[in-house]
Write a structure and sequence with these properties.
Blueprint (H helix, E strand, L loop, with lengths): L3 E6 L2 E6 L2 E2 H8 L9 E4 L2 E3 L4 E2 L3 E6 L4 H23 L5 E7 L2 E6 L5 H16 L4 E7 H10 L3 H8 L5 E7 L2 E3 L16 E4 L4 E5 L16 H16 L5 H9 L3 H25 L6 E5 L6 H14 L3 E6 L28 H12 L4 E7 L4 E8 L5 E6 L17 E7 L14 H17 L3 H18 L9 E4 L5 H13 L9 H11 L17 H4 L7
Parallel strand pairs: 1-7, 15-19, 15-20, 16-19, 20-21
Antiparallel strand pairs: 1-2, 3-6, 4-5, 4-7, 8-9, 9-14, 10-11, 11-12, 13-14, 17-18
Helix pairs in contact: 2-3, 4-5, 8-9, 11-12, 11-13, 13-14
């Protein structure tokens, strides 16, 4: 006879039979959710719905409107997509999951696409979802997994298994096909009926879905050519040097050749920034203001300072201004919908003062510019600025590309740069490395090193940072004259050596334990890289320390 146990859901207590699965319980609560329940948090740990409940538990169900549910939703859709392509075009047909694009994921195939083929893939996915096929979790010997992936000619996945130090690995079965994903999975395909596919070109298409930031609909695709072209440029470079995934990078590390790759990558990035400086110099008669913006932990400070150095090499004299110095007085800071001061919004900047001072400066007038005292929450005026003939103003700030700033200054007098860590290197063909995760790892290290914040503090504040980026930075990325990528092809291995010990400090009782665990699992698949060969002017030094622009 099965014994009863007590569970708590939404602060309500229920009696259930021991051994009931989370799926069975979720079905009873599904009507409270707009989207299918995908995963559960049980006693603070994420569990797939196939798991049985055998002890008293507090349970929280999650759909795609949560960040955890969204990851499961995307992983499930990716699996269904791959399965559909193989059903339609044969076992050797493959989807290569590339990178985020707009509010979706850009995907390429190893065969030429047409709009008709993309429609056929979508319809096949819909048929698979309608069939509600189970996605079954399996634990197998790592060597057996390597043999399986070699037999189906997925040599990259076999390579991933090679660098996985666990004796056993988790695979997922869909129909007669097995695959590896480092994210958790939904229990069946029937929970994934919210997606769309958009044809981009014969090389690729976009997988779209509702997101945490747009939960009520799938937004129409908006091209972002600057970001897309930079991703492609870095992907093409990776092919040239034969590093397209984590396996390729691990091979370089294991052969003791990583120092050469670091130097090559750093020279390439420096040369690209030098090209930006050259372009500004070629239009020095018109360009008087360089505006730099980008999301958190993109390396804006290092890139701006390095750019200034290159501009000086052409005889220009850059004067650096931070938009943060133009904050309104703290008591005047607008409140967000929760009644909390919103330091990210445009209205937190004294735009009237900012615009009028920049206009006066460009007229050749001497201006008493502010420095914001963050301890006191007010502006202080102790610096004067007047431009000479060779001077150029470099302005850094999250709103620097916003079309509402400096509207009184002609566009030809401004040069706009969008900076981001656009991570092109992926784990394998089906597991991408999120640009957001790359930046989060950078921020965890820097927060701990420069501000003494623990990992939990960074993980706690990260969702607010991301909301600010979605509202105030990403919508203006296409305003840029130049998109500059600060991601380095080798950097995950370096970040691992600094961030992994910090992540292990998060206790299992913490609400951020699962975030830390997910990052640890992802980092396990990369070999560590020492920082010895990283130059002092590298953007990575902004985060790991010992750089010439910071320490």
């Amino acid at each position: 006879m099965l014994k009863n146990i007590e569970i708590t859901i939404d602060k309500q207590r229920y009696q259930i039979s021991s051994g009931v699965t989370l799926e069975e319980i979720a079905n009873q609560f599904q009507k409270k959710y707009k989207y299918p329940i995908l995963i559960a948090r049980v006693n603070n740990k994420l569990k797939e719905l196939s798991e049985a409940v055998t002890t008293p538990s507090t349970i929280e169900f999650l759909d795609l409107t949560s960040k955890e549910g969204s990851r499961v939703h995307i992983s499930g859709l990716t699996y269904v997509l791959i399965y559909a392509i193989k059903k339609l075009y044969g076992k050797n047909a493959n989807a290569i999951i590339q990178h985020s694009l707009d509010k979706g994921i850009y995907i390429e195939t190893n065969f030429k696409l047409t709009e008709g083929k993309v429609l056929a893939i979508k319809q096949e996915m819909q048929a698979i979802i309608a069939s509600n096929i189970p996605i079954t979790k399996m634990t197998i010997d790592r060597i057996e997994a390597i043999d399986y992936f070699e037999k189906i000619n997925d040599h990259v996945k076999a390579g991933v298994m090679k660098y996985n130090t666990n004796t056993y690995v988790t695979l997922y079965r869909l129909g007669n096909y097995y695959n590896y994903f480092y994210n958790l999975m939904p229990i069946s395909t029937g929970r994934l009926d919210h997606f769309d596919l958009t044809y981009i070109s014969e090389d690729g298409f976009l997988l779209q879905f509702p997101t945490v930031y747009s939960p009520d609909k799938i937004p129409a695709y908006q091209p972002h050519p600057g970001v897309f072209d930079v991703f492609k440029e870095n992907r093409d470079w990776g092919k040239i040097i034969h590093i397209e995934n984590s396996v390729d990078l691990n091979k370089v590390i294991s052969k003791g050749k990583i120092g050469d790759l670091i130097r090559i990558n750093e020279v390439l990035q420096s040369n690209k920034l030098l090209s930006v400086a050259k372009e500004i110099n070629e239009h020095r008669d018109n360009i008087k203001i360089v505006l730099v913006a980008g999301p958190s932990s993109s390396g804006k400070t290092t890139t701006s300072r390095k750019l200034c150095m290159y501009l000086q090499s052409f005889g220009l004299q850059p004067k650096v201004l931070s938009m943060d110095d133009y904050f309104v007085e703290r008591e005047e800071t607008p409140l967000d919908e929760r009644g909390v001061p919103d330091y990210e919004c445009l209205e937190a900047i004294d735009l009237k003062l900012f615009n009028s001072q920049l206009e006066s400066i460009l007229k050749g007038e001497e201006v008493n510019i502010p420095t914001f005292n963050f301890a006191l929450g007010k502006k202080e005026y102790n610096k004067k600025l007047k431009l000479s003939k060779e001077d150029i103003i470099v302005i850094e700030g999250i709103h620097a590309l916003n079309t509402k700033i400096l509207t009184n200054i002609p566009r030809e007098n401004k040069y706009k740069i969008y900076i981001s860590a656009l991570t092109e290197l992926n784990m394998d063909d089906h597991n991408r490395i999120s640009t957001t995760d790359n930046r989060l790892l950078r921020r965890i290290i820097r927060d701990n090193r420069t501000r003494g914040y623990d990992v939990e503090h960074t993980l706690k504040t990260w969702p607010n940072v991301r909301r600010g980026e979605e509202k105030y930075i990403f919508p203006f990325q296409d305003e840029a004259d130049c998109t500059f990528n600060t991601a380095l092809i080798y950097e995950i291995g370096v970040l691992k050596t600094y961030v992994e010990p910090l992540l292990y400090s998060v206790p299992s009782t913490s609400p951020y334990y699962e975030d830390a665990k997910r990052l640890i699992n992802f980092l396990r698949l990369f070999l560590p890289i020492p920082a010895d060969d990283i130059p002092k002017d590298s953007v990575l030094r902004e985060f790991i320390g010992n750089g010439c622009f910071h320490d």
